[in-house]
Each structure stands twice: as C-alpha cells, then as structure tokens.
C-alpha cells in the first residue's frame, strides 16, 4: 500500500510504504512513542496551571508513570529490532496545541482545572485506543512479551482516566459550575 503523508513542519508530501503487519506495528509503536514524549513535554506546563492540589498530584504521578511508559516503548522497540523514533504524531500535537490555546483564554482558576482535565482525558482516550490496538496486534503476531508490556501501560492509562473522572466529578467541575 502506498500512502501520502504531509510533513507537519515543512508541509512537503512524502510517501510511506507499509506492506506487512510488522510495518504497521512498527508505525503504531512509533506513533505511541511520539505521543508519549510530546505528552511528557507538555505535562509541566499543564501542571503549572492546575489549581487543585488533587489535580497537581495526579499529574505528578502520571508524569512518573509516563516516563516509565516511554522506557517501556523503548524496551519494546529493542525487542522488535526497530527504532522507536519516527514521525511526529500530529493528532497528539493538535490536542496539546488546543489546550495551550484554551488555557491562554481561560482566566478563572477552577475553569482552568476543568479545561486541563478535559484535555488530559482526550489524550488518555487516544492512548487507551492506541495501546489497545498495539496490544492486539502484538498478540496476533505471537509477540507475547511485547503484548504484556503494552497491556501494562494500557491498564495504567485506564486508571489515570478513571482518576481524572473522579477528580472532575468531585471538585474541579463542581467548583467551576458554581463560579
Ligand atoms: Fe501514557
């Protein structure tokens, strides 16, 4: 299959060829690696704007977790004999840019928390979908160790998502609604 892709920065078009399921798997791992490293870079900025202690702590914990998740992807890439670094994953870049723009406009502190939680959950939901796909691909290819590592991260992402829902329903959104 021949695909055309536009480079995110210089906007030139280039072609990529994915002929095997292994190629697709490699692409998925690189996509996740790009997403996680971008998320990791954006986290301190989001944490800085977080108002509730509960949210700040959740971010702090997820930052440590994400560092481990990046290492896990490096381990997976090593096992598969591939380079984890590929093209920038534009969908994650878009989600991060959107929350950055939104936070420029949001002044109310509690509303900022609600905006941060909403953005973080969009990022988590992408990761849950992508890790689920990658895990299933690894299972189908008989790469049990890789599948187990991906499953481990998938569970962490689900827990983070649930924690964010709890924070949103218990404090941030409630306070914002009152403001
Ligand atoms: Fe993650």
Protein model, in words:
This protein has about 180 residues and is mostly helical. Helix content is about 80%, strand content about 5%. It has helices at about 20-50, 55-80, 90-105, 110-140, 145-179, and strands at about 1-5, 15. Strands 1-2 form a two-stranded antiparallel sheet. A hairpin with a 6-residue loop joins β1 and β2 (about 15). α1 runs antiparallel to α2 (about 55-80), α1 runs antiparallel to α4 and α3 runs antiparallel to α4 (about 110-140). The protein binds fe (ii) ion (FE2). Fe (ii) ion (FE2) binds near residues 36, 66, 69, 127 and 157.
Low-confidence stretches: none
Shape designation: globular
* Through-space gap between termini: 53 Å
Indicate the percent of residues in helices. Answer: over 70%
According to DSSP, the number of beta strands is: 2
Strand order of the largest sheet: 1-2
Which ligands occur here? Answer: fe (ii) ion
What is the typical, i.e. mean, pLDDT? 88
Main sheet characteristics: 2 strands, antiparallel
Task: Using the CA coordinates, give the radius of gyration.
Answer: 18 Å
């Amino acid at each position: 299959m021949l695909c055309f892709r536009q480079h995110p920065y210089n906007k030139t078009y280039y072609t990529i060829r994915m002929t095997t399921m292994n190629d697709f798997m490699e692409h998925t791992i690189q996509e996740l690696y790009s997403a996680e490293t971008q998320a990791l870079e954006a986290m301190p900025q989001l944490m800085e704007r977080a108002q509730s202690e509960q949210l700040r702590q959740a971010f702090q914990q997820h930052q440590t977790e994400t560092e481990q998740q990046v290492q896990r992807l490096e381990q997976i890439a090593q096992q598969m004999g591939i380079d984890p670094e590929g093209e920038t994953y534009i969908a994650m870049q878009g989600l991060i840019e959107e929350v950055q723009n939104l936070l420029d406009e949001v002044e109310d502190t509690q509303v900022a928390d609600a905006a941060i939680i909403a953005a973080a959950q969009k990022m988590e939901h992408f990761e849950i979908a992508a890790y689920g796909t990658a895990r299933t691909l690894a299972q189908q290819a008989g790469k049990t160790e890789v599948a187990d590592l991906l499953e481990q991260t998938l569970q962490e992402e689900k827990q983070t998502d649930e924690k964010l829902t709890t924070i949103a329903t218990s404090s941030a959104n409630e306070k914002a609604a009152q403001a």
